[in-house]
Amino acid sequence: MTNAREISVEYLARVEGEGSMRVEVVDDHIEHVEFSIFEPPRFFEAFLRGRPHTDAPDITARICGICPIAYQMSSVHAMEDAFGVTVGGPLRELRRLIYCGEWIESHALHIYLLHAPDFLGYQSGIHMAADHRDVVERGLRLKKAGNAIVGLLGGREIHPINVKVGGFYRTPTKAELETLVPELEWAKEAAIETIRFVSGFTFPEADMDFEFVSLSHPDEYPFNEGRIISNRGLDISVAEFNETFVEEHVERSNALHSRIRERGAYHVGPLARYSLNFDKLTPLAQNLAREAGLERVCMNPFKSIVVRSVETLYAVEEALRIIDEYEPPAAPAVPYTVKEGEGHGATEAPRGLLYHRYRVHDDGRIADAQIVPPTAQNQLTIESDLRYVLERHLDLPDEELAWVLEQSIRNYDPCISCATHFLDLTVDRG
Amino acid sequence: MAETVVIGVGNRMMGDDAVGPAVLDRLTGRVAPDIALIESVGDATHLLESWRDTRLAVVVDAVVSGGVPGSVRRIDGRNGLPSTWRSASTHLVGVAEAIDLGAAVEVLPDELVVYGIEIGSVQPGVSLSPAIDAAADVAAEGIVAELEGVTSRTA
After folding, report:
1. Which of A40, A197, A203, A243 is most exposed by smallest CB count within 10 Å?
2. How far B17 CA lies from chain A's nearest CA (Å)?
3. Which among A12, A15, A420 has CB closest to B17?
């Protein structure tokens, strides 16, 4: 008798995007794995056409409520590339600082309220909060410390408005930045506690063969700048993105899957950044990573929660360093001359590499826009992770199998406002 | 921290989902200056921090529950939201999730009023459909009246 199982997870896109996960197993043979969580931001690309180039940071920031800074940063870097502008000194440091804020808030949210419940056996962060109130409060406060950086530098926490091509509309005084320090000092200790907390979880065994892709910079853990590298020898400038990566239409769905040309799936995000840039972490973050049992390269996606915790500590330390060394710039932005051209920008969003490309008319209007978010790039890798997990857990009852599959998806912190709610889970036995 | 906050939930680039922020626009200049108007994408932790230590929070959000688009419902939110408003989310996005999380960690305002404005569906766009635009007016008038009452009670 044939024993067919179909497991599907449907997603409700409250804000935007749509997707689904469907798995078919017949007689312990995996017939089909289909995952698509992310609809590319085509509306935004179309909407930007014809608008002033100065609109790009504020409009693209609304693609994701959780990582607006990433969208702002990739867009301003792309525009500056088109116009031949370089932003250095304190302005560059302030950009790193605001990015630290976004990493802290995004990582804290995911670690404490979205991912930890998977490991501790709770349906959600809400259920977990009932039993672990102190832990959840620590996560909330840590997230708030990140929000405070974004709020101060961005003008407001949600849809920040202070970032512009060339720099900022207004830069903070030293005294203003120093108001952040006491809470960041607390956050540093909290981040250390976070690493110790999550490293005590039980992790499913997994040893993947990922091609990791991230930015790499000779002097720093990457946020805004660097070459795009991989652990299989890739080493390209951001402008070569489209020569290397391709978004392919998948026949069975509306999704686009990103691949490295003639090679296949790749992995962006904390695991990739960490594994390709371990040497650039602070000594404290490196030590805590080792103490948590991480090697210099981590191929177990279930341990991404530990890596996110290490990156949170790094971001807090980096924020404190920047504030300590900060001297206000002479002007809040670098002047530039608009000219016709094309520019590329890639920065490290909390979830991984975020690429923007714009062509600009000679009057500064946008002729063409391309945005490739990290969650879109990871879709194919998530699908192959699901297959890997399925192969090793076919003996589990449907409910437990669905749990570990969802957990596999959450390893990637799929962009929540761009993607998803888990609305319903159905298990259909043939 | 303001004693009273009004939180508009939604994304201004997603058509009728922007009705919460659109209500905030209508309230600007019409409510007392010490009342904070806060825009939110609905991340539960942001909602929770927005109403932490407040006496009264009014939350305005778009709802898809099968009702008539443009209908406006006002409910006391401290006891949670109707099940049809829930997303059963494990991603902590939404007002219902924020209320549940707030209850778990005891971070709820003394009074929590939720205005739910029924929308048909969410499609990308930068304008409200006529029925939802009219509903935003209705909700805004209701909130203005409600907040005048607050002022007179505390004066």
Report:
1. A243
2. 7
3. A15
